[in-house]
Design a protein that fits this description.
mainly alpha, Membrane-spanning 4-domains, subfamily A, member 4A, 62% helix, 3-stranded antiparallel β-sheet, membrane, 216 residues
Length: 216
């Protein structure tokens, strides 16, 4: 179970101190949630949103022109919407609120799965265009068809690169969220050694003044 930063910050060591002037304590890092900001969640979340919207727009244009199979585009559309939601949660998680960070972790796990689904579906779409020109017998039509096939092959290849980028972004955010919410282990503790300075002895001049005062 993850422990929030507001709970018990200091715990006494079970090891006895070697000296009454030295005390050893273990302190939880109260600022460990700020490590999430090192991942630049706002920039990466906006990147997730932008790349997923690009995928949705391109898919919509192809289907509106009858150049894409609607049945194979539905999984890509749903997965891209999930990634958009994950990007919004990542942007909201920069307030370092622990429940939001946990929601970000869950959404980034879903975004990784959605990116893998999009990669597979895009590769399937790329393969569908490899046999469209087999049914054309005229040479001039086959030449035009191969040119169109080459364009779509490059287009879907770019789509695979986009989804691979989204997968890398989601995996990075997921790793930072996992560190912050301590889903893989207990929160680390830092040993803190406190040394108390012993009281300084009275100076010899003070003692001489006291002695002279007594003689007088």
């Amino acid at each position: 179970m993850a422990v929030s930063d507001e709970e018990a910050v200091m715990e006494e060591s079970i090891i006895p101190a070697q000296s009454p002037l030295v005390s050893v304590t273990f302190q939880r890092n109260a600022r460990r949630k700020e490590k999430f900001l090192e991942a630049e969640p706002k920039a990466l979340g906006i990147a997730e949103i932008g790349l997923s919207l690009y995928t949705i727009i391109c898919l919509g244009v192809l289907q509106s022109k009858g150049l894409s199979d609607p049945s194979s585009g539905i999984p890509i559309f749903i997965a891209s919407l999930l990634i958009v939601i994950a990007g919004n949660v990542a942007v909201a998680a920069q307030n370092l609120h622990l429940p939001t960070l946990r929601a970000c972790l869950g959404m980034q796990i879903l975004a990784c799965g959605a990116s893998i689904v999009n990669i597979i579906c895009t590769l399937v779409k790329m393969g569908d265009w490899s046999h469209h020109c087999w049914y054309l017998h005229a040479d001039k039509y086959q030449e035009v068809c191969h040119q169109i096939e080459f364009i779509f092959f490059n287009f879907y290849g770019g789509g695979v690169l986009v989804q691979a980028t989204v997968l890398a972004i989601s995996a990075s955010l997921m790793a930072y969220c996992c560190k912050v919410v301590n889903c893989c282990g207990p929160a680390p503790k830092m040993p803190v050694i406190m040394v108390q300075t012993p009281p300084r002895p009275e100076s010899s001049s003070v003692r001489n003044d006291q002695t002279s005062t007594q003689h007088s």
